[in-house]
Design brief:
- This protein is of the alpha/beta class.
- It folds into two domains: 175 residues, Glycogen Phosphorylase B (Rossmann fold); 169 residues, Glycogen Phosphorylase B (Rossmann fold, 3-Layer(aba) Sandwich), CATH 3.40.50.
- The strands form two sheets. Strands 3-2-1-4-5-6-7 form a seven-stranded parallel β-sheet, sandwiched between helices. Strands 10-9-8-11-12-13 form a six-stranded parallel β-sheet, sandwiched between helices.
- Strand 2, helix 2 and strand 3 form a beta-alpha-beta unit.
- Helix 4 crosses helix 5, helix 8 packs across helix 12 and helix 11 crosses helix 13.
- It is globular and about 65 Å long.
């Protein structure tokens, strides 16, 4: 008998976690009897509707006020009852915490995907994930769960993220204009949050702009630091050098028009940006943190640098800008890495085998 699965996360806004959930929904909607998604909402809700997948908007699970917690429990229990849910696949620690409590009174199979590395909230994490079947998006994420949270090795399976290669390229006008003028475009893609280290990218842009007029910098995304980062650009007199594109739902189109991608994160699980860049035969300058080196190999398919270091970002960008042969080598190897390790077919096949083993659908 086919099962009913609930994907439970904080939001369906922008970010790698949300992209992974969308891919699971798209590829497994005919495998399960029913797929339901619950979150606090976001830009992907309309896409879920287009897929014919019901979305329930619930309270923000990050809100730890007692009233919010009780209301969220009631919301989740109602969804489980009304939709006859027997599997919950969580993608956020607080979502997993709610399920760990609900499981005490409900026959629920709990799967959790760990998308990031953490060191905080040890007790909460142990309660949330102690009895869950865990997918880690990389070996470093798995090690983090084992070492920092003492979770059982035999309950954790590594499944690397994968991205579907899109072919319907539609040029973005402002990027086309810059390319036509001969500019070398360097992009940074991600939520404008502390984690992504965008301020170091901006500092590197300032250093480069003092010696090179042919490089422009593109920042894609939105987030809580947007106004602060825009003020920083203005204070540095870089408004003509750095272009904020805001949130985009066509990241492959953006990457297609870039010459180089930078990932300036201070921490990561297994980031999607390098995979998306590699998918489009682009190389990357990335910080050597957590799971990123599982994708980016230094001077093989990209350049790894230390985190929180604008000088290293600057030097790596200029190295690739000035050495066309190196750029071409890194790009060729980047696409090979995507095809061999991070393609969508491997991602789906690995999840299919996992579901068959755990869920037995």
């Amino acid at each position: 008998m086919k099962k009913n699965i609930l994907y439970f996360t904080r939001t369906m806004d922008i970010g790698g976690t949300e992209k992974i959930i969308m891919q699971l929904c798209s590829n497994f909607k005919d495998k399960f009897n029913k797929i339901i998604v619950c979150s606090a909402g976001g830009v992907h809700v309309r896409e879920l509707k287009d897929l014919g997948i019901k979305h329930y908007e619930i309270n923000d699970i990050q809100n730890k006020k007692i009233k919010n917690i009780f209301n969220t429990f009631r919301q989740i229990l109602k969804i489980i009852k009304n939709e006859e849910i027997n599997i919950i696949h969580t993608h956020h620690r607080m979502a997993a915490f709610y399920v760990s409590i609900i499981k005490k009174n409900k026959k629920i199979l709990h799967i959790h995907t760990a998308h990031n590395t953490f060191t905080d909230k040890k007790k909460l994490t142990q309660i949330a994930l102690g009895n869950a079947n865990i997918i880690a998006v990389g070996e470093n994420v798995k090690k983090n769960l084992e070492d920092n949270y003492k979770l059982k090795n035999d309950k954790i399976t590594v499944i690397y993220n994968g991205i579907k290669n899109t072919r319907n390229f539609k040029p973005i006008e402002i990027l086309s204009e810059l390319k036509d003028k001969g500019y070398f475009l360097v992009g940074n893609i991600g939520r404008l949050s502390e984690q992504k280290g965008i301020k170091y990218f901006i500092e590197a842009a300032k250093l480069i702009s003092e010696q090179n007029e042919k490089i422009k910098f593109i920042i894609v995304g939105n987030g809580e630091l947007e106004l602060e980062l825009k003020r920083m650009v203005s204070d540095f007199n870089l408004n003509e050098k750095i272009i904020f594109l805001g949130y985009r739902n066509d990241i492959p189109n953006v990457i297609e028009q870039l010459d180089l991608v930078v990932l300036s994160s201070l921490w990561e699980g297994l980031p999607l940006v390098p995979i998306e860049a590699f998918m489009k035969s682009k190389t990357i300058v990335a910080t050597n943190v957590d799971g990123t080196p599982e994708i980016v190999e230094n001077y093989i398919n990209g350049i790894l640098i230390n985190a929180a270091n604008s000088v290293e970002i600057k030097n790596a960008i200029l190295k690739i800008y000035e050495d066309e042969d190196l750029k071409k080598l890194l790009e060729d190897n980047a696409y090979k890495t995507y095809k061999e390790k991070f393609n969508i077919d491997s991602f789906i096949d690995n999840h299919d085998r996992y579901y068959k083993k755990i869920v037995n659908y």
